[in-house]
Amino acid sequence: MRRAFAVLALAAVCCAARGWTFCDAPDECVCRYHERAEEDLMRQHIDCSYRRSALGGNRTLPPRAHSLDLSSSGLKIIPSGPFLRSKSLQELVLKNNDITEIEPGALALPDLRRLDLSYNRLERLDGAVFRSITKLEFLNLANNNFVSFAKLTFHPLRELHEVILNNNNIGPALQDTDLFDRDGFGLTNKIQKVSISGIGLGRVHYNFFVDAYDIRELVIANNDLTELFEIPFTLEYLDVSDNPIREISGEDFSDLTALKVLKMNNLSIGSVPANALEPLRALVRLDLERNLNLTEFSALAFGREVLEDADDFALEELSLKSSRLQTLDRRLQVPLGQLSRLDLQGNRWHCDCRLAWIKQFQIKPNDYEHLRLDDNVT
């Protein structure tokens, strides 16, 4: 009996010395393997969200850890130690905590690809934090307390493809410091997706994106922009919604031959003038919703050519929802007749004979709930 107790005591000492893994505490974390993909059968997915003692007890990551979720766990500091050391971890979620500091060396995760630090209280990041996660491809720093970054903060992240910086007050800092090049914050030129919504940006200076050679998606909504800027010609997706932009023209969109999705909701524009959208030959979706000053949509907005022959007209979805339009020119019947989705509801339509042509379109029920046309109009 004594020998049995001695063995158990020795095992307890050994376990305490090496530390428990996150998966050794089923009441704290849920560990599972992927249920479908065969290639993920050996990858462990660890969910410690909403567990406020998840980092306690010297816990470490198991050898086959693939993802770790520590969101909403009341974390305040990510300390340097054994907790976040792994050669296999690829995804780490630390969102919705109270993190104010990440100690240098805390993230010893050489194969990490995705890191979510959104909704925390970070005001600064030591560039050394990124030096051991150089394979990172996705970084979310939205909804923190950043007002700037140290020079070359992001420079170690040579493989970064997507960054989200929404709702940090870094707009003023970007007036004088470049987001991308080596004289600024050092975002890699491999960046393809950038989201800088709600950062207090009042102006996009000339050549702002010159070092973003391959940028495909840009969300620059909910800022203080009063005019459009030099838009990267590589873009396929652009969202400039919720800015006080006063006017648009074809010159703003010249050379954007790859753009497929354009969102211009809640701007201050009064019209979509002739030829404004003509350069956008690859455009598939256009959102012009909640533009409360928009009273005119020119018959020539897409150019004159598509009014007669829409065979090369790529647009599939158009929303003019909740603006102040009263009528649309009948000449738009040809290009708009090509659409798979047209949302006209929530405008102040003047339902007379000039608008009767719209009734022939097969508008989906969800898109005409608040669209009322007089049935007697012919």
Mind describing the biggest β-sheet?
A: 14 strands, mixed
What order do the helices and strands follow? HEEEEEEEEEEEEEEEEEHE
Strand arrangement, major sheet: 1-2-3-5-7-8-9-10-11-12-13-15-17-18
Classify the beta-strand content into a percent band: 5-15%
Mind telling me the C-alpha Rg? 27 Å
* Tally of alpha and pi helices: 2
The low-confidence parts are: 1-18, 374-378
- The N- to C-terminal Cα distance equals 98 Å
Number of strands: 18
Helix content: under 10%
Category by helix and strand content: mainly beta
Report mean pLDDT, rounded to a whole number. Answer: 87
Shape: elongated
Task: Describe the overall structure.
This protein is mainly beta and 378 residues long. The protein contains 2 helices and 18 strands. It has a 14-stranded mixed beta sheet, with no helix packed on it. A two-stranded parallel sheet has the order 4-6. Strand 17, helix 2 (333-336) and strand 18 (341-343) form a beta-alpha-beta unit. The chain is elongated, with a radius of gyration of 27 Å. The termini are far apart. 35% of the residues are buried.
Present the secondary structure layout.
Layout: H1 2-18, E1 30-33, E2 44-47, E3 65-69, E4 77-78, E5 91-93, E6 101-102, E7 114-116, E8 138-140, E9 162-164, E10 193-195, E11 217-219, E12 237-239, E13 261-263, E14 271-272, E15 285-287, E16 296-297, E17 317-319, H2 333-336, E18 341-343
Parallel strand pairs: 2-3, 3-5, 4-6, 5-7, 7-8, 8-9, 9-10, 10-11, 11-12, 12-13, 13-15, 14-16, 15-17, 17-18
Antiparallel strand pairs: 1-2
